[in-house]
Design brief:
This is Peptidase M14 domain-containing protein. By secondary structure, the chain is α/β, with parallel strands linked by helices. The protein has a domain at 25-147 and 232-363: Zn peptidases (Aminopeptidase, 3-Layer(aba) Sandwich), CATH 3.40.630. It has helices at residues 2-25, 40-53, 101-117, 122-130, 141-147, 153-156, 216-225, 262-280, 289-292, 300-307, 335-356, and strands at residues 58-65, 71-77, 88-93, 131-136, 166-170, 175-179, 234-244, 246-249, 285-288, 312-321, 360-362, 379-381. The strands form 3 sheets. An 8-stranded mixed beta sheet has the order 1-2-4-3-7-10-8-9, with helices on both faces. A two-stranded antiparallel sheet has the order 5-6. Strands 11-12 form a two-stranded antiparallel sheet. A hairpin with a 4-residue loop joins strand 5 and strand 6. Helix 3 (101-117) crosses helix 11 (335-356) and helix 8 runs antiparallel to helix 11 (335-356). It is globular, with a radius of gyration of 22 Å. The structure holds zinc ion (ZN). The site of zinc ion (ZN) has 4 residues, from loops.
């Protein structure tokens, strides 16, 4: 009898051990094949589906529309805050350059990791309970769709959005050329000047646009980071691009120009990069792009660092390194390994954010003129 009772107990225990995580989690994600490159409709269906299927901790976010009317979609992953409290928020995105497909896919990998790990993995559960994690896989859907339409280099390697043609372009032997598209990562109001060459040329891959925030995609990001939903509680932002294995810090609109807390950003970036390296020896260089590569004005992350209280603001240029030119789209079997190693670096950032903000109560509203002095403390200590 004793033996039988023990056996029954063991069986019950095993059943509970096997079934509990799934039952507790109740999380599920729509199928998304990360062993191949997907088209925009797959991203759209996935992001909408993951929010629909997990309403207790995933919310769909549409922050605006592209030039051609596609939604700028993301999710907020996080258990709702207790009444009267604001959670610290973090932001991950797949960038705004059309051809940089791996970054879009790695953002989906992050969503998979967070949603499927909730109530299963202790670390992930802590992140979802403590933080609001915003993930925006594709912030330039028009350019992405266009880059998928042909293997012709001029289309497959498209970088900009799909702004209508502008006929003030110049080439080596002519002027008044008409070219389409604006580089969304040159369109922000930081270091913007009509004298910036080649960013002032509509036929350049890096055309900044006729004026700062001329594009709906960059206006949508600006308006969302300034909105009462996340302003004052967004503490870290990582924007992924390809390629180069660079962990890029602000500022990039001018060489040797740094925010006051640069050392903090650099120290954390080095720790995160070391963690990534430990996985399969992917080596990142850490620094500003201005110092490592050359000045780039109008960048999204530079503008966000300068105009919001967000502390840790990074651009990751994912693998491969810079030895190969135009390696924006690695073979798709690398997407999951890149997702795994990059996630380990993201964990280092999340851990630091949680540790650093445990006694903070985020402030609630943007300042009246819509901008802030980046040197003043904005996270009020309790
Ligand atoms: Zn890029």
């Amino acid at each position: 009898m004793f033996v039988m009772r023990s056996t029954v107990c063991l069986l019950v225990y095993l059943l509970v051990a096997v079934w509990t995580p799934q039952t507790k989690a109740g999380a599920r994600t729509p199928f998304f094949d990360l062993t191949q490159y997907n088209d925009w409709p797959q991203f759209e269906d996935y992001v909408k589906g993951v929010a629909h299927d997990n309403p207790s901790f995933v919310q769909l976010k549409t922050i605006g529309r592209s030039r051609e009317g596609r939604p700028l979609l993301g999710v907020r992953i996080g258990k709702p805050a207790p009444a009267g409290r604001r959670k610290i928020a973090v932001w991950l995105d797949g960038g705004n350059h059309a051809r940089e497909w791996p970054a879009f896919h790695v953002a989906v990998y992050f969503i998979e990791k967070l949603v499927n790990g909730y109530l299963v993995d202790d670390k992930i559960t802590k992140y979802v309970n403590t933080l609001d994690i915003y993930v925006f896989p594709v912030l330039n859907p028009d350019g992405f769709v266009y880059s998928r339409t042909s293997t012709r280099a001029t289309i497959r390697q498209w970088r900009k959005n799909r702004a209508p043609e502008n006929c003030t372009g110049t080439g080596p032997f002519s002027s008044d050329l008409c070219c389409e598209g604006v580089d969304l990562n040159r369109n922000y109001d930081i270091g913007f000047s009509h004298n910036n060459y080649p960013f002032n040329n509509p036929c350049s891959d890096e055309f900044q646009g006729p004026r700062p925030f001329s594009e709906p995609e960059s206006r949508a990001v600006r308006d969302f980071v300034m909105s009462s939903e996340i302003y004052g509680r967004l503490y870290a932002l990582v924007s992924m691009h390809t390629h180069g294995q660079l962990w890029i810090l602000p500022y990039n609109y001018h060489k040797r120009t740094y925010p006051q807390d640069f050392k903090d950003l650099e120290t954390l970036a080095n720790r995160a990069a070391d963690r990534v390296f430990a996985y399969r020896e992917t080596k990142y260089r850490v620094g500003t792009a201005a110092d490592m590569l050359g000045t780039a004005t109008g960048g999204a992350t530079d503008w966000i660092k300068k105009n919001t209280p967000t502390k840790y603001v990074y651009v990751l240029e994912l693998p491969p390194d810079m030895k190969t030119w135009f390696a924006f789209q690695v073979k798709p079997h690398w997407l999951i390994p890149i997702g795994k190693e990059t996630w380990l670096g993201i964990e280092v950032i999340f851990d630091q954010v949680i540790e650093e903000t445990k006694n903070f109560q985020p402030t609630s509203e943007p300042s009246s003129n819509g901008t802030v002095d980046s040197r003043s403390p904005r996270f009020r200590q309790l």
